[in-house]
Design brief:
Elements: E1 2-6, H1 10-19, E2 26-31, H2 35-45, E3 50-51, H3 54-58, E4 65-68, H4 75-84, E5 88-92, H5 99-112, E6 116-119, H6 126-136, E7 142-150, H7 170-186, E8 192-197, E9 209-215, E10 221-227, E11 235-242, E12 245-250, E13 253-256, H8 265-268, H9 275-289, H10 301-313
Parallel strand pairs: 1-2, 1-4, 2-3, 4-5, 5-6, 7-10
Antiparallel strand pairs: 7-11, 8-9, 9-10, 11-12, 12-13
Helix pairs in contact: 1-9, 4-5, 5-10, 6-7, 7-10
């Protein structure tokens, strides 16, 4: 399976790293927005070809699939072009930064007959898989998911602190992870919603602080606090408050409410304990198996609808 990766930034490099560990996969090309940076990244990961022309890659018959790790505002349009070119597509979260574009992408994905998957990575991180499996088995009853997403992003920089020319979004990107995770974990569509946002930043033009609340029909709550003003540890922490205990997840690690590590072997087995690797393996398996992936564009559309509702309520 020959894959082209588009995006030389922090998340593009994550994909290059894990794709190199998947048997039967060859990353044959990298599409970069910055040629010099792209050449350096390609050399680091052993990618033989670098280009700045995504459309040029889409007409090549030797490329089977494209991984889009490009700026958020480009995701929907680029994913549509990939699918219309007859290639399978893995697009970074969010699939779009508005509902209309997400619905159009879902329509094109359905008509294309190709695998169209979104990087809802939290579905694949072992801690969240562990909690979800126990909820499904009746071993945990979730009362409240509390998520804190904190970054210091007062200018346009990526996760490595490198400057970039586009603005990230707390709701449509970072909250998207948690909104999708809550619905996926509970198996229910959130309906009771509230949203509050702070004043827009004078330079970036977006709200730098958000407070969100969600509720599913079973009664479980989700509270999300997000900030781009946080001077401290960066990233997202998820706290699952259950009848049978509290569990705190941070990326691929899980501890109980008292800080004791939780053994995740029942969901990882001998496999990868890396959510991004598990996600990319799912994409490859869906393409080679001719099936719908766990986080397909179609399955992610409800998340985009909830984000749209939250966006209209933010004030």
């Amino acid at each position: 399976m020959r894959i082209c990766v588009a995006g030389e930034g922090a998340i593009g490099r994550k994909h290059l790293s894990v794709l190199g560990r998947i048997s039967g996969v060859e990353v044959c090309a990298l599409v970069a927005g910055r040629p010099e940076a792209g050449a350096a990244v390609a050399a680091e990961y052993g990618v033989p070809e670098v280009s700045t022309d995504l459309d040029g890659m889409l007409v090549r018959p030797d490329i089977d699939a494209v991984v889009l790790a490009t700026p958020t505002p480009l995701h929907a349009d680029q994913a549509v072009r990939v699918l219309r070119a007859g290639k399978h597509c893995l697009v970074e979260i969010p699939m779009a930064d508005n509902l209309a574009d997400a619905e159009e992408l879902a329509r094109v994905a359905r008509e294309s007959g190709r695998v169209a998957m979104v990087c809802h990575t939290r579905r694949f991180n072992p801690p969240h898989r562990w909690v979800r499996a126990r909820i499904a088995a009746g071993r945990l009853r979730l009362r409240h998911l509390v998520a804190q997403t904190f970054f210091l992003r007062r200018d346009n920089r990526n996760a490595l602190g490198e400057p970039r020319d586009w603005t990230d979004h707390l709701l449509w990107h970072h909250a998207c992870h948690t909104v999708d995770l809550f619905g996926h974990t509970t198996g229910e569509r959130p309906s009771g919603l509230f949203a509050l946002q702070g004043p827009p930043d004078a330079n970036l033009g977006i709200a730098m602080d958000l407070s969100l609340g969600l509720k599913v029909p079973s009664g479980a709550l989700c509270t999300v606090a997000l900030s781009f003003h946080h001077d401290g540890p960066q990233g997202t922490t998820f706290r699952y408050v259950c009848d049978e205990g509290t569990y705190v997840a941070h990326y691929d690690d899980l501890v109980d409410g008292h800080g004791n590590p939780v053994d995740l072997a029942e969901v990882t087995g001998d496999g990868a304990a890396d959510g991004i690797e598990e996600q990319d393996r799912e994409f490859v398996a869906a393409v080679t198996g001719g099936r719908e992936p766990e986080s397909s564009v179609a399955r992610g559309l409800d998340t985009m609808r909830v984000l749209h509702e939250l966006d209209t309520r933010a004030g």
